[in-house]
């Protein structure tokens, strides 16, 4: 084992494994490849984290913990609920392959619980209780997860022929040239997410102030 391998730690193994999964998916994570990334013997990895299944379990547990670090910000319950949605989307977008591992192991609900609790807290602060509070929490949660799934599907989709700009004909352009031009440009997904999130939250929590949660 070289000097780098002799300084190996469990956290270093998990960091390198997570980087591999993020970049290339779980199939890329082999013990031999991970050892090459770390510059150590395969046996050193076994010493720190066990076999590959144990390593995947550790990555899942770490991902659940990371997803649980949700902090609401803003001056009103609605603004804070919006900030939770923004943070949840950011976390889901940052680690799609790791999220898939969590889902495969049946821990999605546990992973989402901290965000649900943060949203429930803000629903209570807005005066919502019982079924109304649960509906508000789930509406935001489903909106975020659904939006992320659509984003991922669009990113992985093959090139479309004709594409969206080609499908807006001259008649539409004559009726609403601004609309036709907007569809000719790629969507600003960050702006779209903020707008739709604000609409969902405002309908259930009340209006969000101008800069709230953004």
**Termini, distance in Å?**
49 Å
What average pLDDT do the residues reach? 88
The count of helical stretches stands at 12
Helix content: over 70%
Q: Give the topology string: H per helix, E per strand.
A: HHHHHHHHHHHH
Q: What's the story with the biggest beta sheet?
A: none
Tally of separate domains: 2
Structural class by helix and strand composition: mainly alpha
What's the alpha carbon Rg, rounded to whole Å?
22 Å
Can you tell me the residue ranges where pLDDT is under 50 for at least 5 consecutive residues? Answer: 1-5, 208-214
Shape: flat
Number of strands: 0
Question: How are the secondary structure elements laid out?
Answer:
Layout lengths: L2 H4 L3 H15 L6 H8 L3 H8 L2 H16 L9 H18 L1 H9 L3 H18 L4 H27 L13 H6 L1 H8 L4 H17 L9
Helix pairs in contact: 5-7, 5-8, 6-8, 6-9, 6-12, 8-9, 9-12
Plain-language structure description:
With 214 residues, the chain is mainly α. The protein has 2 domains: 3-50, Homeodomain-like (Arc Repressor Mutant, subunit A); 70-205. Helices cover 72% and strands 0% of the residues. The chain has helices at 3-6, 10-24, 31-38, 42-49, 52-67, 77-94, 96-104, 108-125, 130-156, 170-175, 177-184, 189-205. Helix 5 (52-67) packs across helix 7, helix 6 runs antiparallel to helix 12 (189-205) and helix 9 (130-156) runs antiparallel to helix 12 (189-205). The longest helix is centred in the C-terminal third of the chain and has 27 residues, at 130-156. Mean pLDDT is 88; it is low at 1-5 and 208-214.
Brief account:
The protein is mainly α.
């Amino acid at each position: 084992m070289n000097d780098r391998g002799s300084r190996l730690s469990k956290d270093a193994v998990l960091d390198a494994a997570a980087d591999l999964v993020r970049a290339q998916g779980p199939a890329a994570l082999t013990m031999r490849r991970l050892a090459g990334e770390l510059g150590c013997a395969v046996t050193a990895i076994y010493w720190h984290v066990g076999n590959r299944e144990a390593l995947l379990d550790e990555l899942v547990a770490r991902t659940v913990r990371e997803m649980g670090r949700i902090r609401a910000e803003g001056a009103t319950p609605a603004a804070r609920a919006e900030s939770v949605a923004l943070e949840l989307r950011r976390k889901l977008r940052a680690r799609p392959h790791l999220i898939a591992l969590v889902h495969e192991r049946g821990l999605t609900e546990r992973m989402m619980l901290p965000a649900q609790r943060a949203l429930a807290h803000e629903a209570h602060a807005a005066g919502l209780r019982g079924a109304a509070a649960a509906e508000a929490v789930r509406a935001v949660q489903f909106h975020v997860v659904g939006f992320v799934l659509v984003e991922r599907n669009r990113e992985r989709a093959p090139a479309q022929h004709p594409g969206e700009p080609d499908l807006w004909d001259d008649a539409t352009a004559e009726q609403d040239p601004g609309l036709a031009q907007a569809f000719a440009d790629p969507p600003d997904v960050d702006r779209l997410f903020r707008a739709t999130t604000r609409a969902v939250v405002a309908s259930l929590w009340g209006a969000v102030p101008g800069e709230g949660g953004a």
